[in-house]
């Protein structure tokens, strides 16, 4: 039996981004209640807001130059843990 994925949100306490991290976690847990094993909030410093899934970096605020939009984050997570799943209105437009 395989372990469900672990998502980490590392956030800057100096920047007071706990609420943003908690809101992001809540949205992901609501969207992927059966697919995610856990979402961990990891306090840090230095302006960090990084999101990783099982150790793979999905988004880094510093590297990308800003915060990720939630629909894009949901797509990135979905593509790795439930690629056949539709996300409704926040899904990509048909190409």
Automatic annotation (TrEMBL):
Xref: Pfam families: Rdx (PF10262)
Q: Which UniProt keywords apply?
A: Redox-active center
Note whether Transmembrane occurs among the keywords. no
| Gene3D superfamilies named among the record's database cross-references | Glutaredoxin (3.40.30.10)
Record's NCBIfam families? Answer: CXXU_selWTH
Protein's recorded name: SelT/SelW/SelH family protein
